[in-house]
Write a structure and sequence with these properties.
Elements: E1 4-12, E2 27-34, E3 37-44, H1 45-54, E4 69-70, E5 75-78, E6 85-88, E7 93-94, E8 97-101, E9 104-108, E10 114-118, H2 119-139, H3 149-173
Antiparallel strand pairs: 1-2, 2-3, 4-7, 5-6, 8-9, 9-10
Amino acid sequence: MSGFSIDAGGFGWIMGTPDEPGDRCLHGHAAARIGAETLEYDCTVSAAALYLLKTLTEDHVMGEDNQLLPCCGFFLVADRDCENVQIIGCDSGADWSVYHEGDIVRLVTPSGAETRVPIADYAREVCRFADEVAAFYARCTPKTEPEDDFDRRGWLAFRREWRRRRSEAADEYGFGTEAGI
């Protein structure tokens, strides 16, 4: 065991329907195993996947940003160029810290337990999780574009950032192919 794994299931849309073209936030039950601990939450797995892709290149400090397994992520704020997105939701969810230390990531749980994982193993698991989420989107009806310009820019930035980060991970670690939403 590498010290980190993450799985999700029970995917669906907020109204409980098996397919909803107007709902862009995929929900499900996620379970992250970090060392001897398991953190579980019924979360917005689409936001969780993007947050985890961000942790491949950036530290994440528990409590200073969104939770890695957020309850919700309904408000997408694009940067000026629509290349990156800030996802805003409520303050509920499950979280842990991710620190980069050379070719290792140090994961710190809410209990204070620390687990060190080779970055390549961590990246492989994060990409597998993100690809699982993307595959569910691919099986559904394509999402409708928001009518409002602000919402449309947020949705565009979400997809662009996802594809870029997933592609960079494939290039950096030599596994998988880009899977986007």
